Amino acid sequence: MDQRKTIAVFGSGLTSRYKRHLCRALNIAAEEFDVNLVYINSYGKLRSITSVAEDQESQFLDFIDLDQFDGIIFDGEGYNIEGMAERVERKLRTAKCPVISISSHIDGFYNIEFDDAGGLREMVEHLIDHHHFTRIAFMSGFLSHPDAQTRLAEFRSVMKDHGFPEDGVGMFEGDFWYNKGVEAAHFFLSLPERPEAIVCANDYMAISLINALRQQGIKVPDDIAVTGYDGTPEGKEFLPHLSSVTRERMDIAHKAIKLLVDLADNGNIDEHDLHVSPKPIYSQSCGCEPLEYQHVLETVDRVHEEKRMLSTAVYESESAMIKLNKVDSVRKMEAVFAEDSVNFGEYSSFFMMVHVDSAGKPAYDSDFTGPSGRFVPVIWIDKNKEYTKSPHSFNTQSLIPRSGSDKCHVYYIMVVHHAETIYGYTVVEMKGKDIFNEFHNVWIHNLSMTLNALHQNDQIGKLITKLEGLSITDGLTGMLNRRGFDDKSRSVISRFSEKHSICCMVIDMDGLKRINDEFGHHEGDRAIRALADIVQRACDAGEVSGRTGGDEFYVFAPDYSEKRLNRFLDHLKKYTDEYNEANKRGYKLDFSCGTYMTEADAFGRIEEYLKIADGRMYEQKMTKPGRRH
How far is residue 597's CA from residue 565's CA, in Å, rounded to a whole number? Predict the structure, then answer.
């Protein structure tokens, strides 16, 4: 990377509509201050594979060297997996550069403090002072969440200050999501005093509640006013538009990056915490603005357009999945991605790095032993030709390829894992200020499954090779068995384009029965292995050898001569004598050998030549004293 300051952003679920606007604000601020941004994005909650995703994503933290960053922004909101935010926080506490928390106060970090309580107070007092509501209820998030505790405490404080019961006419514990709307509507409509207004601790619960009230025939805001919190895009587009409190993401982003730049330039500063004030949005759901039907039509048109785009993106994902299922190499995987990765937004570069072990084997190789701290690129798409592929591997000190361009860059990093295996990570640089959409995550999952399939196929291929080796290998000696000898010798002779001088030999051990009878079959096996080693040592000129049964060995020698044959036989005798001189077991190793030299072409019948050599071997054996077999 270039010499600009580089700031890392650690967050989770950045493709959610709520987080996308935060990313855009940070990207705009990064360009203003001329710094690079590197997002380390976690998937978030993945339902049935949550525990697996948690383990792999937290392990990936170990491969990130924080020394490559000049500052770090930590957004701890959105880590839905229990304990994950704490793991990231522990990692960031090891950083030598300054760390800013932008979503909750963390001792030891710099903090962007958002006045949650002040924003909620403004909204409740607006309902009391402007609309003159006296029967107000509250829908909280799950009460173990710090934001829920802050907002509920402030609601109670405001109600008490105005002489109302602390919980108003009723308090319902929600989930900060869309799942509790029906249950909440039933609760509020069953209260002894029906609320005039319901304050929700975030926009998502407010939307869910309004939908549930609508099903009960309750009009918002005519019958009951409903307000949200956080100022989400969904709340601004929902009908009626939500009265809410925006978190002023642009202000947060600007202050966070400016603080990190100032710290990098000037060292420590006295003020550890910066404050961001909320901005209330008084809109249609509390009755401050009328419904605008032209805007309704525009919203409907936009929703239909997004639906069409979503359908197209789904079809493109299905097509890409089918293509990825067919690939048998990472090179083909790169080709599929380059051609079909069109549904998550315009990007200028995309890289996928995989772990390699100390021997350089990639993580999808079945012989991979474990991460070495180095990564190699298996997908390298550089549309603007800004990056150099040298070095050919990357390490924990530098996860990003080096760019030759003169602009600031924004990168998004995500871990690539499948089940219990971390394969590596991806780096993508988008063309505009916006982050990719959710289909990028779908691509990452599909790529990880493809790597897993390549891994399994490699395992299967090597197992097949091993089994094939076992089927043609003699278990006692490790030499070719009869099938292996036949296959290999036939393969050699079939490649002859003209006649060649060849030699076939049959070698048979002498005296094996005596060794078995006097010293046991275990010693007989030892003697067979010894003769097998001698035969293989003598085969140093392209000969094919094998144990074809019992104590008998075959040798096929292509492109042979009498000189080579005599050399081979001399080596057999020499190695046998050396063995016997060292052998103290009470017997001598001996053998008989029959040979047959001839001219042969690709149609030569090796089995006929071996029959002749076998007969000559037998004649030699019969001339030996005692004719031991």
Answer: 9
CA–CA distance, 9 with 69 (Å, rounded to integer): 10
277, two tokens: 């004030």
204-254 tens-digit pLDDT: 999 999 999 999 999 999 999 999 999 988 898 898 999 999 988 899 999
Q: Which two tokens stand for residue 187?
A: 């609760």
Nearest to residue 229, comparing CAs of 184, 174, 266? 174
SS3 of 2, please?
Answer: coil
Structural domain tally of the chain? 3
Residue 129: give its domain's CATH number: 3.40.50.2300
d(CA 406, CA 118): 43
The CATH number of the domain holding residue 431 is: 3.30.450
Q: According to DSSP H, which parts of 34-62 are helical?
A: 50-60
Answer whether residue 538 is part of any domain.
Answer: yes
Residues 241 and 200 in one domain: yes
CA distance 382 to 351: 8
- Amino acid letter, 313: A
Which domain does 161 fall in, by range? 116-248+278-291
Which residues, in sequence order, are bridge partners of residue 36?
6
274: β partners? 112
In a 10 Å sphere around its CB, with 0-12 CB exposed, 13-18 middle and 19+ buried, how is residue 22 labelled? buried
Could you tell me which of 274, 386, 271, 260 has the C-alpha nearest to residue 4?
A: 260
What confidence tens digit (pLDDT) does each residue in 479-520 have?
Answer: 999 989 998 999 999 999 899 999 999 999 999 999 999 999
What's the DSSP call for residue 413?
E
* Contact by Cβ (8 Å): 502, 560: yes
Distance CA 122, CA 130 (A): 11
- Is 257 within a domain? no
228: burial class by Cβ within 10 Å (0-12, 13-18, 19+)? buried
Bridge-based pairing of strands 410-418 and 544-549 is unpaired
HEC string of 240-264 equals CCCEEEECCHHHHHHHHHHHHHHHH
CA–CA gap between residue 50 and residue 43 (Å, rounded): 10
Q: Does residue 203 lie within any of the structural domains?
A: yes
Distance CA 573, CA 568 (A): 9
- Give the pairing type, strands 6-12 and 36-42: parallel
> How many residues in total does the chain contain?
629
Residue 330 has pLDDT above 80, yes or no: yes
The two structure tokens encoding residue 466: 């091993």
Give, rounded to a whole angstrom, the gap between the first and last alpha carbons of the chain: 76
For residues 525 and 580, state if they share a domain.
Answer: yes
Question: What is the SS3 assignment for 48?
Answer: helix
Backbone angles phi, psi at 348, to 5 degrees: -100, -25
Q: What is the CATH number of the domain that holds 501?
A: 3.30.70.270
User: Which of 371, 364, 347 has its CA nearest to residue 427?
Assistant: 347
User: Could you tell me which of 390, 393, 450 has the C-alpha nearest to residue 416?
Assistant: 450
DSSP string, 80-97: -STTHHHHHHHHHTT-SS
Kindly state the tokens that stand for 418: 């499948």
Q: Are residues 44 and 138 in the same domain?
A: no
- Beta-bridged to residue 547, according to DSSP, are 553
Structure tokens at 211: 């939908």
pLDDT: which is higher, 297 or 621 = 621
Nearby residues of 612 by Cβ (< 8 Å), 6 or more positions away? 504, 594, 596
